[in-house]
Amino acid sequence: MTKIYAVGDIQGCAPSLKNLLKKLPKKSKLIFLGDLVNRGPDSLGTLRLLKSLQESGRAECILGNHDLHLLAIDAGIRKTKGLDTVDRILKAPDRKELINWVRNRPMALTNGKVLAVHAGVLPQWDLQQTIKCAHEVEEALRDKSYQKFLANMYDNTPSKWSNSLKGYERLRVITNALTRMRFCTPGGKMEFISKEGLESGPRGYLPWFKAPKRKTANTLIYFGHWSTLGLLRRHNVIGLDTGCVWGGKLTAMEMSDTNKDSKALQIIQVAGYDHPLRM
Asked: What is the pLDDT of residues 226-262, one digit of tens each?
């Protein structure tokens, strides 16, 4: 039986990705949990390698906030920031092909039992609604006028989900939940400033996976995005962003349909990037 591994945030650390691939079983399949590019030493090389892996049928890549940031820069909606490392992608001869490939990647993945996302899931969403909402953003990204969505993507409001939301407000809440959220209230109001450990959220806010009565509580979820947590293994929640770009590690974990045997699942790690600005 072919093993499937979930892989945490790469963020352009192509050397770490190549080292990880050498350690993984050759016939294994891979699910990359987003933040494929940016901040690391070789975002272009990373993107080309992931595109090759996906097109060969060995991998699929979920989009994270840094990947959407790349699309916004390419579309002229955002400018590069001081720590960004996407310039070589924007100057590459295959820029158009790479951007088109990124636009066509999923926002979430499931086999009906396990869910893979970049950041988190709102407490009001069950598995089916999470995938339905993800598809709405995917359709917007794949539309010919996708730049309009990107131009309306950046804002922290509305901060809470409602089934009555429409248009860009609806898409924005979905995008923020799937790619940016760490903390929310029990009612699902999101907060985007706090980035440290589990107890660092503002008063009244909890890590999204601790929200009481969360409708995906019985679904095993793999996610990335939250590097300050390191490797997180809790009941039905596995966090795999182990800070590769900040001198941590790049982590792959064997996936299973159940959390019961998670302690027996294989974890493979390689050294991350020794970022010159890491503390």
From this structure: 999 999 999 999 999 999 999 999 999 999 987 666 6
Q: Are 201 and 182 in contact (CB under 8 A)?
A: yes
Q: Helix H segments across the chain?
A: 14-23, 43-55, 65-74, 87-91, 95-103, 127-142, 146-151, 167-179
Predicted structure pTM score: 0.96
Q: Which two tokens stand for residue 184?
A: 């929310």
> In the structure encoding, which two tokens stand for residue 177, read together?
């939940």
| Block residue for tokens 């790469």 | 10
- The amino acid at 25: P
Report pLDDT digits (tens) over 18-76. Answer: 999 999 999 999 999 999 999 999 999 999 999 999 999 999 999 999 999 999 999 99
Return the closest-CA partner of residue 89 out of 53, 36, 138. Answer: 36
Do residues 69 and 35 touch, judged by C-beta distance below 8 A?
no
Rounded-to-integer distance, Cα 266 and Cα 3, Å: 10
CB within 8 Å of 30: residues ≥ 6 apart = 4, 5, 6, 7, 24, 53, 58, 59, 60, 252
Strand order in the sheet with 237-239: 108-110, 114-117, 220-223, 237-239, 232-234
CA distance 123 to 209: 8
* Cα 261 to the center of its chain, rounded Å: 24
Give the relative orientation of helices 65-74 and 95-103 as an angle to the nearest 10 degrees.
130
Cα separations (Å) of 37 from 66, 67, 83, 137, 220? 6, 6, 12, 20, 26
Closest CA to 240 of 111, 59, 113, 118: 118
